[in-house]
Design goal:
282 residues, mainly alpha, Glycerol uptake facilitator protein, 11 helices
């Protein structure tokens, strides 16, 4: 059973988005650094469990394994408590739609969170993925070579083989699902209920190969640090811009605006701040 109905979920989401802007910049940066690192952990374990599986034998099952493992990232973000740009792209604009905060608050928060997410993802990519040898290089053997080859396949696909239009649309689809995962988690008050709500949408977007800007802040730099040929910072920046734009559209148009229209438009603003998610009170 759900602990909250959609109307109450919408009130809680708007209140949570508003509260995210009522913190000092340093707290936002620390929280978002953790969020970027958590997503990078999910990406790293996803690479590890799906490496070495020959598509000729396994078909598309490696992407399913990868999606299931990647859910660790958002579980850590929501249960442990931190800021993730893709979730904030839905929650914070929703707070603005309710008149709780301004457009400047939205832009400031999303900018700080993206910077923090990038720093966290880069830290894990360089120090904990490549420098540890978990992801090897082209001259490695054994498991490090397998993880290198898996990372190279993912990074080359995202940076070199997707058109700009494809990256943008994959970004839209990705964050539509991610924000639905966050939205549905608001229906539950137990840890197990939140994890169950998160699992299927997150698994689905990874399995379908959609683009998550924060995950790509790990995949593409890790490939550069590991020496994957032809993947450079130019291609990486373009991917981030396109994926991020798609993520923003997926969050604002298909989740925040849709549910504001369905449940909050022309509805009295019952201040749900006291009901905001505990993990978001930091």
């Amino acid at each position: 059973m759900t602990a909250r109905e959609p109307q109450e979920m919408a009130q809680v989401a708007a209140a949570t988005g508003s509260k995210k802007t009522h913190r000092t910049w340093d707290r936002v940066l620390v929280s978002s650094f953790l969020g970027g690192a958590y997503i990078a952990f999910g990406a790293l374990v996803a690479i590890t469990v799906s490496s070495g599986l020959d598509p000729a034998r396994w078909g598309t099952l490696p992407t399913l394994f990868m999606g299931a493992a990647f859910t660790l990232g958002l579980v850590l973000v929501l249960i442990a408590g931190s800021d993730l740009a893709t979730g904030n792209m839905m929650l914070v604009p929703l707070g603005a739609m309710r008149g709780k905060i301004t457009g400047v608050d939205v832009v400031t928060n999303l900018t700080l969170v993206l910077v923090g997410n990038l720093l966290g993802a880069l830290f894990v990519a360089f120090f904990l993925a490549v420098q540890t040898g978990v992801i090897g290089d082209a001259d490695a053997t054994g498991s490090p070579l397998l993880t290198y080859e898996r990372l190279a396949s993912i990074a080359e696909g995202k940076a070199l083989h997707e058109s700009a239009w494809q990256v943008f649309l994959r970004g839209v689809g990705c964050n539509w699902l991610v924000c639905l995962a966050v939205w549905m988690s608001l229906a539950a008050t137990s840890v197990s209920g939140k994890i169950l709500a998160l699992f299927f949408p997150i698994m689905a977007f990874v399995a379908m190969g959609f683009d998550h800007v924060v995950a790509n802040m790990f995949f593409l730099p890790a490939a550069i640090f590991a020496g994957v040929p032809d993947v450079g910072w130019g291609e990486t920046l373009v991917n981030w811009l396109l994926a991020g734009a798609g993520n923003l559209v997926g969050a604002v148009v298909f989740v925040a605006t849709s549910y504001w229209y369905l449940f909050l438009k022309d509805t009295p603003d019952d201040d749900a701040t006291e009901h905001a998610e505990p993990a978001e009170r930091a």
